[in-house]
Design brief:
Distance between the termini: 59 Å
Structural class: mainly alpha
Number of helices: 21
CATH class: Mainly Alpha
Strand content: under 5%
CATH topology: Sodium/glucose cotransporter
Largest sheet: 2 strands, antiparallel
Number of domains: 1
Shape: globular
Helix content: over 70%
CATH superfamily: Sodium/glucose cotransporter
Radius of gyration: 23 Å
Order of helices and strands: HHHHHHHHHHEEHHHHHHHHEEHHH
Strand order of the largest sheet: 1-2
Length: 518
């Protein structure tokens, strides 16, 4: 009981700091640009850690290590794909996107950038992009809130819905009041806390087990195929991985180019010099973090044995890091307050993504739809009030989706990640590198990418043998919808652009100017 009190104290202190940051930044907000982009004033460190922290949500410290814990090192192909995708995003997207968003009417949001980039007078891109963002971000935010509920429920033994409510209220509070700078500042702190957690906990557990004992314990734990199969990246669940499986896992990396909550960080960096610093910091952070998360899944299976998560207990495999921290700091070492701080690292991963998603959802509805389409003459104070109202409504809606405790964090993230990656990834990439791309091509790419994912993952086409249950294309083929949606979107952008009128001379001139900016 005493250990729970210390952990609770650590959580309370952490959440209080987050709320205070939100309140402090509330007084600095003058207009919608401050609320959504922080006046384009991010320094290199904050931009880098904020981008990575907002990306690495609950799936990063729960879903991914949980899947490796349960099925083996073959699940690490996702980490490889994410590593490659992160590097490509920093190297090939960040600089050009920052320049182009400033050149294209000082766009504050991704939909506004696309509208300005293609001179869309009819606002088709603005509306289409905003609808896609709201649709998939509600699911994405729900995944973060679900992870938060599971964390609180597991640590404090409280009922899931109550735990979910606590996390949602804290995230909503500082995002509602502080806007983008509060989110980025808290994300910076959260990024550092996450890095400390993923570095220290597997090293501590490894030392407590002893290196010579790990393989033997993995064998005893009942890992499918035995320890050798479990530790083989070419096997998962005791079987050889297929080419389709590897392609699906690596395809996660394609999603980065289409993630609005990550791209907005590139848009907000104060200068090209700071952005170059961000690239180095961001790539180092993700290299260390992804490597450590893979180790958490492997070492956690040995360290927690004889307890087998999701087999002999009601605790899911996604709680592997939570259970490791609890055991290290309350059983092997009597430092529950320190353990509580490391548990806050998991909470940090959850909060850093949820706050960013709420903010981007609010920008899509308020800046792009409300002021962009319905109330073009709305003043900054009105937009700021509406923005906060949308943050509240979005949080409540995501909370409603997350109320089902049976939701899988990894599945929710997988659906949203595929939707964004397919709808926006090819459009953003080609808009930055292909001068011939035009408005009809961009519209075709966004719609085809989003629709492909929805059909692939959610529309049943095939009967399961010996059952009345229908299967989706995703379940039938085993191919991740992002790989299919990204390819279809890419092909249609090129085909439609070539079959329709060339972009105007003015658009092409802007493209050439963007390439010259340093």
């Amino acid at each position: 009981m005493a250990s729970v009190v210390w952990i609770l104290l650590a959580f309370a202190l952490y959440m209080l700091i987050m709320i205070v940051i939100g309140i402090l930044y509330a007084g600095r907000l003058r207009n919608s640009e401050d609320f959504f982009l922080g006046g384009r004033n991010l320094n290199g460190w904050v931009a880098a850690l904020s981008a990575e922290a907002s990306d690495m949500s609950g799936w990063f410290l729960m879903g991914l290590p949980g899947s490796i814990y349960a099925y083996g090192t073959g699940q690490a192909w996702i980490a490889v794909g994410l590593f490659l995708g992160t590097i490509c995003n920093w190297l090939f997207v960040s600089s050009r996107l920052r320049r182009y968003t400033i050149l294209a009417g000082n766009a504050l949001t991704l939909p506004a950038y696309l509208e300005n980039r293609f001179h869309d007078q009819k606002r088709i891109l603005l509306v289409t992009s905003s609808v896609v963002i709201v649709l998939f971000f509600l699911v994405y935010t729900a995944s973060a809130l679900t992870a938060g509920g599971l964390l609180f429920s597991s640590v404090f033994g409280v009922e899931y819905t109550f735990a979910l409510t606590i996390g949602a209220v804290v995230i909503l509070t500082y995002t509602f009041w502080g806007g983008f700078m509060a989110v980025c500042t808290t994300d910076f702190i959260q990024g550092m806390l996450m890095l400390a957690g993923v570095l220290f906990v597997p090293i501590a557990a490894y030392g407590l087990i002893g290196s010579h004992n790990i393989v033997g314990i993995l064998e005893q734990s009942g890992a499918a195929g035995g320890a050798s199969s479990y530790l083989n990246i070419m096997e998962a669940s005791g079987s050889k991985v297929s080419a389709v499986y590897i392609i699906s896992q690596l395809a996660w990396g394609l999603g980065y180019c289409g993630m609005p909550h990550i791209l907005v960080r590139f848009m907000a960096v104060s200068s090209e010099r700071e952005l170059r610093k961000s690239k180095i910091i961001g790539i180092i952070w993700v290299t260390i973090s992804l490597s450590c998360v893979v180790l958490i899944g492997i070492i956690g299976r040995a360290y927690l044995y004889p307890e087998i998560l999701e087999r002999t207990t009601d605790i899911p495999a996604e709680n592997v890091l939570i259970e490791m921290i609890k055991k290290v700091f309350t059983q092997d070492w009597n430092h529950p307050f320190v353990g509580g701080l490391f548990l806050c690292g998991i909470l940090a991963a959850i909060m850093s993504t949820a706050d960013s998603q709420l903010l981007v959802t609010a920008s899509a509805v308020t800046e792009d739809l409300f002021r962009g389409v319905f109330r073009k003459d709305a003043g900054d104070k009105t937009v700021l009030r509406v923005s906060r109202a949308v943050v509240f409504v979005a949080a409540v809606t995501a909370y409603a989706i997350a109320r089902n405790p049976e939701n899988s964090v990894m599945n929710l993230v997988s659906n949203a990640w595929a939707g964004f990656g397919s709808a926006f990834g090819p459009v953003v990439l080609l808009s930055l590198y292909w001068k011939r791309m035009n408005l009809p091509g961009a519209v075709a790419g966004i719609i085809s990418g989003a629709v492909t994912v929805l059909i692939w993952d959610h529309v049943p086409f095939f009967h399961t043998e010996g059952s009345e249950i229908m299967q989706t294309l995703g379940a039938k083929t085993g191919l991740y919808s992002l790989a299919v949606g990204f390819l279809i979107s890419l092909v249609l952008i090129v085909a439609v652009s070539l079959l329709t009128e060339k972009p105007s001379g003015e658009i092409q001139k802007e493209f050439d100017e963007m390439k010259k900016i340093q």
